[in-house]
Amino acid sequence: MSEIEAIYAHRFSPAERAQKDALWRTLCRHFFQRYVRPDDVVLDLGAGFCEFINHIACRQRIAVDLSDETARCAAAGVAVYRDLSAVADASVDLVFCSNFFEHLPDKRAMAATLDAIVRVLRAGGRLMILQPNIKYLTTQYWDFFDHHIPLSHLSMVEALVGHGLAPAVVIPRFLPFTTKSSLPKADILVRAYLRFPPAWRVLGRQMFILAEKRPRGAERP
Question: What topology is assigned to 3-213 in CATH?
């Protein structure tokens, strides 16, 4: 078992993992799916237990993660790779990253990862991000051993623009910090939360950003 797998085995019990999977099924159906077209090729970067990629509806699904656990969790039909280098240039319509960038060792690694994402995206392709927002977190952010880079929605937008991605949707406060937070877990309550943005401004500690790949040659500000 790798260090990452050991950390996550400690962090989430089997019952909590099942609860997370049910939560993600609701999130995909009632929020994320609106940004995914039926004919899209979707790549989940840092797919982990595959809660997103298993539940999103699209033409082709790809999971990328260093953990061997990802291949064991992937649903039938999900292609699994350990690195973005295995994915062809301009072959993906949408890349999804949930709670991923804060785990990279430093901003140089993050910049290289953004370049790799841009490489695999088709022209007009999209990057969808769910990410803890340090602007609305203090010491709680550092309760996790594998958190390295603190990012706000403002610094994330700057990073995206600097790497050829134009933010189209920016929600600074969306979901609570973790699945162990105060977000209701029952399907009907999660759907009610998603339909009531004023609750996001109270409970939200994670940002949601949708960015689009700019045409080649577009000038950076």
Answer: Rossmann fold (3.40.50)
